[in-house]
Structure formats: structure tokens, C-alpha cells
Amino acid sequence: MSESKRNPTLQIAGVEIEDEFAEAFDMKATRVIITAHDERWAAEAAAAMTGFGTSVIACGIETAVEKTLSPDETPDGRPGVSILAFAVSGSELEKQIPRRVGQCVLTCPTTAIYAGIDVPDGVAAKRVPIGKMVRFFGDGNQISKVVGTEKGPRRFWRVPVMDGEFVCEHDVARVDGIGGGNFLLLGRSLDAITIACRAACDAMKGVDGVITPFPGGAARSGSKVGSKYSKLFASTNDAFCPTLRKVGPTLLRDEEDAALEIVIDGMSFEAIAESMKVGITAACRAGADAGLLRVTAGNYGGKLGKHHFRLHEVMS
């Protein structure tokens, strides 16, 4: 993180938007669609599949619900949920998705799962298995069928289960994504940044192609690269810890007593930039009177990732 910069020229509702940039990096991504007999079963399956999916540091993938889908938006005309997943490598994505589908979606009553990325002619060079792996649970009783669509042929599997059949698509496209978009909310109190954070995350749910994978969309454990302990890849971002401001270098100002970070993964640079703009605007409008003082962003001097989201450009 570069030294804190005071630039009062850009404000929203009186909250300073610092002239900083968020540093993000390349990831591999995919999208799946879960459907079910009703909204509750679909939501239960989605919650299970995306559990323990906050950070690639230890979870394997970063995954969360992108949005809920109405019956007229899903392949089988039932209520659904769209899920995005990101990993640092294609092989990790190919390992994590079938495991989570097998343990969290196949097991949930009435569900089905489909590919959520359209590709030309229905074929992508890189694909992530779904039914290709999960079908073996049918113990030889599974049935496959190739269905011709406007976008090319698609293979589906029907696996016998105790409430009927589990329908799943053979595989789903794997595409390039971006992880690590972010902004930090700094304020006079925890209440102030909680109000701002929740307003931001609620607003960002309206942007397609992005997720905020941490609990409630926010992380209090913002991290820096590396640690005094050689086995750790990351450790607490001490420059933003209020309890450490008197024992080491700090980026907190005197009146700032709490900070939260919102991390964003997205299918494109444009989607992340749009979500940051929407989220920061909502945070400032909701949190200004409560004590939100500043919005900044996390970076490592440009050494970690090639995607740089400059706050003043994002908000222009």
C-alpha cells in the first residue's frame, strides 16, 4: 500500500474518495444455475454450494450467489439462483465445482444444475465438469441426452435419486475472470462503517457479473501479502488496524477508528468497475451522516496484479 494520500477534490455526500487504486489479478471463472421446485430449496442449495468460499487463500475458490432468477430466466422454468465461482487455476476450478455440486446440490431436494455461460456453438475450449463427474452416483442407472439448442448441442444427465431425478448439465464453460477488486470504508465508528458497508453491498447486488464473496459482502480481516511466519501467504493488514496505530506505521487518520473492506470478483473489468461505482456511491450516501469519513482502496504498489481500478476514474 502506498502512503495515504489526502485529496479532498473528490467527495460524495461529503465523504472523501481518496486518489488510490485497487489492485486485482487474473482468475479463472465460471457460472452455474441452480433451480428447484421452489425458491427455498434453490436458496438452500446455493448457500451450501457457496459455503466456505470466501478466499482462495484457503478455500480453493471464491464463490457466491450472483443473483436470484425468476422461472422465466431459468432453463427449466423453475425458480433459480445464479452462482459465480473464481479460482487461481483452471485445475482448481475443475476440482472444486464437481465436489460442491455432488455434496451440496445433488443432495438438496428437487434441485437441478445447468451451465450459466453461453458460448458460440455451445462449445468452449476450456470446460468444467458437472454431470461428467456427478453422474456416476447413479451407479449405472444414469441416462444422458443431447439436446439441440439455438446455441448448439448440450448434454444433460438424469441421475435417479429418492425424490425423482437429479438433472445436471454435462459441463460448463470456463472463462477468464478478475479477482481482488476492492474498496475500503473508514469511519468514526463500527456503526458508521456497518451502515455504509451494508448499503454498498445491497446496491452492488444489482450489478450482473460480480460477487462479493466474504460474509455479508465485507471483510474485517483485510490482508497484506506475506507474514513474519514463513508458512503464511497473507497476514493482517496492520496499517489499517486501529489497535496497532501507536506501535507501528499506520494509514488511519486520527479520527478514523474502524475500517471494513469490500472485495469484488468479476467476469470483466467493466463489471467490477461498475459495481465499485455503485457500491461507493451507496456507501457514501448512507454512511456520511453516521460517520463514514473516507473511501480508499487496497493495492501493493502494482506488484500483485495487472488490473488497476483507480477510484477517481471509476467514480467519474
UniProtKB/TrEMBL annotation:
Where is this gene product found?
A: Cytoplasm
Q: Which UniProt keywords apply?
A: Acyltransferase, Cytoplasm, Hydrolase, One-carbon metabolism, Transferase
Q: Which molecular-function annotation in GO is an example for this chain?
A: hydrolase activity
Q: Is this entry keyworded Cytoplasm?
A: yes
Reactions catalysed: N-formylmethanofuran + 5,6,7,8-tetrahydromethanopterin + H(+) = N(5)-formyl-5,6,7,8-tetrahydromethanopterin + methanofuran
The leader peptide range reads none
Q: Does the keyword Acyltransferase apply?
A: yes
EC code = 2.3.1.101
Q: What biological-process terms (Gene Ontology) are attached? A: formaldehyde catabolic process; one-carbon metabolic process
Pathway named in the protein's UniProt entry: One-carbon metabolism; formaldehyde degradation; formate from formaldehyde (H(4)MPT route): step 4/5
Q: Which residues form the Formylmethanofuran: tetrahydromethanopterin formyltransferase Ftr C-terminal domain?
A: 164-314
- Looking at the record, the residues that make up the Formylmethanofuran: tetrahydromethanopterin formyltransferase Ftr N-terminal domain are 11-161
Give any Gene Ontology cellular component.
cytoplasm
Pfam assignment, any one? FTR_C
Q: Which NCBIfam families match?
A: one_C_fhcD, PRK02114.1
The family line of this record is: Belongs to the FTR family.
Subunit details: Homotetramer.
Q: What does this protein do?
A: Catalyzes the transfer of a formyl group from 5-formyl tetrahydromethanopterin (5-formyl-H(4)MPT) to methanofuran (MFR) to produce formylmethanofuran (formyl-MFR) and tetrahydromethanopterin (H(4)MPT).
Q: What is this protein called?
A: Formylmethanofuran--tetrahydromethanopterin formyltransferase
Gene that produces this protein: fhcD_2
